[in-house]
Amino acid sequence: MSAQGVEVAPWGPPYLLYLGSAPDDLSIKTARGLAYWRPQWCLGQHRRDDCAVTLGLPDVGLAQSRDNGADTMVIGVANAGGVMSPEMVADTIAALEAGLNVVSGLHHRLNDQAEIVAAARANGRALFDARAPQPGLPVGTGKPRAGRRLLTVGTDCSVGKMYTALALERSLRQRGCPADFRATGQTGILVAGAGIPIDAVVADFISGAAEAISPARGDHGWDLIEGQGSLFHPSFAGVSLGLLHGSQPDALVLCHEPTRRHMRGLADYPIPDLMACMEANLAAARLTNPAVKPVGIALNTSNLPADEAQAACERIGALFGLPCQDPVSMGVEAITDHLIASFGN
C-alpha cells in the first residue's frame, strides 16, 4: 500500500518491450504506443531473430535488461485472436526466470497458462493481463449523464483511434481545458495506467462498461474515449456499436487510413465509403445522444508522401466541411479548434 492507502501494482516501469517474431508494424502497436507516449518508461526491446520490425530502442537480452534496471517485460505484440505462440510462452517463462514481471494485452491470458503461472510463483514475479475486465460491470442504461465526451471511431481496426484520442487530450490540456483519455484497449490501458478492455467484456455489458469508464463530470472538461474496431468490420462491429451507445458521445472524430483497400484481415470486405461510415456512426450514436456532432477527420498518412498526405487531408476535409489532419505528422490543433468552437471552452 502507498502512503495514501492506495494499492500499488507489484509491477511497473522501467519496461522491456517484447516484440518476439513480429512480422510488421501493425503487429507491434502495443509496444509502439508505449514507446511513443511513455518513452521515459521504456528501457529497450527484445526481439527474436526473425522479427521484421524495430522500435529503434536498444536490443536487450532478458537477463541483461534486468541488470540494466528493467522491472517488467511488456508483451508488445497484438496478433489476430490475441494468441500466445509456444515461442512466446517460452520467452515469457524465461523473462520470469530472469527476474522480470510480465504484462500482456493478449486475449490468451498469462494467468490461464499453467506453466507461466508456475514460473511466476517460483520466481516471486507478478503477472498482469490488461485484457482481463474487472468484475461487476453494469448493464448500460442509456440514462443521460453530465459531462462532455468525444469518441474516436474508424473505418477499420488499427487506423489511429487511440493515438488521436491521446493527441486530443494533450492538445486540450495545453489550452487549459480539463481533459482525460479513457482507455478501452490493452495499449491504452498500459499508457494511461487504467481503463477497461472493451473487447474482452461480455457483450451484454459493453455499453455499461463505456458508461463506467466515462462517468458524469461537472468541470466543463472532456473525456476522450478510445474507440475500437469499426461498424463496418464483420468481426468487431459489435464492440464498436456498444461503445457508441455507452459513450453517449457529444462529438465524433472519424479515423481512416487512406491507402488501405480492405478491412484488416478480411480481403473480401472493402474499406467503407467515408461519408457512409460517418453517417452510420452518427446514426448509432444518436440512440443515446441525439445531439452528437462530427468534429473532425484523423488520417493515418504514414504510407503517403508528404504532398499526397496534405492533398488527401484537404480533399477529405472539403468533402466533410471539417478539419482533417494526420495527428502524427500534422497535429490535431485544427480539430481542437473546431471542437472548442462547436461546444465552447
UniProtKB/TrEMBL annotation:
Superkingdom to which the source organism belongs: Bacteria
Domain D-glutamate N-acetyltransferase-like C-terminal: 139-335
Pfam families: DUF1611, DUF1611_N
Sequence ranges assigned to domain D-glutamate N-acetyltransferase-like N-terminal in this UniProt record: 55-133
Listed InterPro entries: DgcN-like, DgcN-like_C, DgcN-like_N, P-loop_NTPase
PANTHER family membership: DUF1611 DOMAIN-CONTAINING PROTEIN (PTHR40690:SF1), GLL3100 PROTEIN (PTHR40690)
This protein's name: EBNA-1 nuclear protein
